[in-house]
């Protein structure tokens, strides 16, 4: 399930340059408390891995100012945010609370829901997508404790995205994936690289345009769960071009 949320505030929104953690906290607060606690503390298990199985976009809106000295960005009063999950209850729980008309806080900014749209993209076994939030992929070499980030010019970047999607598929559908799955670059540039600070950790991620080929339910999963790692921290959300 994918939703497009438009929020409004009485004054321009002042946020830190890296605001992912604030959006994540905002979305958790919108959910039913029991569901929010379950996702935050446990998620969905796959061996030693845990998936939160939701993702969200960066803020889409008119940027009024960048205050580099204080590390702040200032947006106009109306902003758009996309939010998705293959677990319908995760999104519907948030919708129910948002539709109650309460005021919510995004950081120190008081916001209210202005409009809501359920997004139903047309998909097939091949789609062209662009990033609504950048994709991050990393690996830890055998015998080492330190990981490093991969980039879109490395084939392993796409291999790890594909393996990650297959794991998510097995968690969501409870069965192994049978069929083709291919994620390929369409348009990537060096300037698409993003460095985002999340709770003290600097994360390297990449925007761009990509092609996804696979069964329709896998393609849909890629849109609802996100590509790559750290989706619930605001990475890897894509939309059909």
Q: What does this 3D model show about the protein?
A:
The protein is an alpha+beta fold. It folds into two domains: 2-119, Alpha-Beta Plaits; 126-240, 2-Layer Sandwich (Alpha-Beta Plaits), CATH 3.30.70. The chain has five helices and 18 strands. The protein has helices at 20-30, 33-41, 88-98, 155-173, 216-225, and strands at residues 2-9, 13-16, 44-46, 49-51, 55-56, 63-67, 72-75, 78-84, 104-106, 109-119, 126-131, 138-139, 148-149, 181-187, 193-198, 201-206, 209-214, 238-240. The strands form six sheets. The chain has a five-stranded antiparallel β-sheet with strand order 5-8-1-10-9. Strands 14-17-11-18 form a four-stranded antiparallel β-sheet. β15 (193-198) and β16 form a beta hairpin. α1 (20-30) crosses α3 and α4 crosses α5 (216-225). The radius of gyration is 18 Å and the shape is globular.
Topology:
Elements: E1 2-9, E2 13-16, H1 20-30, H2 33-41, E3 44-46, E4 49-51, E5 55-56, E6 63-67, E7 72-75, E8 78-84, H3 88-98, E9 104-106, E10 109-119, E11 126-131, E12 138-139, E13 148-149, H4 155-173, E14 181-187, E15 193-198, E16 201-206, E17 209-214, H5 216-225, E18 238-240
Antiparallel strand pairs: 1-8, 1-10, 2-7, 3-4, 5-8, 6-7, 9-10, 11-17, 11-18, 12-13, 14-17, 15-16
Helix pairs in contact: 1-3, 4-5
In short:
The chain is 25% helix and 37% strand.
Tell me, rounded to a whole number, the average pLDDT.
94
Order of helices and strands: EEHHEEEEEEHEEEEEHEEEEHE
The number of E-state strands comes to 18
CATH fold assignment of the largest domain: Alpha-Beta Plaits
Shape annotation:
globular
Q: If strands are numbered along the chain, what order do they take across the biggest sheet?
A: 5-8-1-10-9
- CATH structural architecture of the largest domain: 2-Layer Sandwich
Largest sheet: 5 strands, antiparallel
Name of the level-1 CATH class of the largest domain = Alpha Beta
**Unreliable parts:** none
> What's the Cα radius of gyration?
18 Å
Number of domains: 2
- The helix/strand class is alpha+beta
Number of helices: 5
Tell me the β content. 35-45%
- End-to-end Cα distance: 18 Å
Proportion of helical residues: 10-25%
């Amino acid at each position: 399930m994918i939703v497009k949320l438009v929020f409004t505030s009485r004054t321009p929104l002042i946020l830190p340059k890296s605001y992912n953690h604030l959006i994540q906290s905002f979305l958790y607060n919108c959910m039913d408390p029991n569901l929010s606690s379950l996702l935050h503390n446990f998620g969905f298990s796959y061996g030693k891995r845990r998936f939160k199985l939701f993702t969200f976009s960066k803020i889409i809106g008119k940027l009024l100012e960048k205050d580099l000295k204080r590390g702040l960005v200032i947006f106009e009063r109306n902003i758009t945010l996309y939010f998705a999950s293959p677990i319908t209850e995760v999104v519907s729980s948030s919708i129910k609370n948002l539709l109650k008309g309460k005021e919510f806080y995004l950081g120190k900014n008081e916001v209210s829901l202005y409009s809501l749209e359920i997004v139903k993209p047309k998909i097939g076994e091949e789609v062209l997508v662009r990033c609504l939030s950048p994709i991050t992929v990393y690996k830890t070499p055998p015998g080492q404790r330190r990981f490093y980030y991969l980039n879109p010019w490395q084939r392993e970047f796409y291999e790890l995205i594909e393996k990650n999607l297959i794991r998510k598929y097995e968690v969501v559908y409870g069965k192994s994936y049978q069929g083709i799955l291919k994620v390929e670059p369409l348009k990537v540039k060096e300037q698409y690289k993003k460095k985002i600070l999340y709770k003290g950790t600097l994360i390297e991620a990449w925007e761009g345009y990509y092609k996804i080929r696979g069964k329709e339910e896998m393609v849909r999963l890629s849109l609802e769960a996100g590509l790559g790692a750290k989706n619930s921290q605001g990475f890897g959300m894509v939309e059909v071009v």
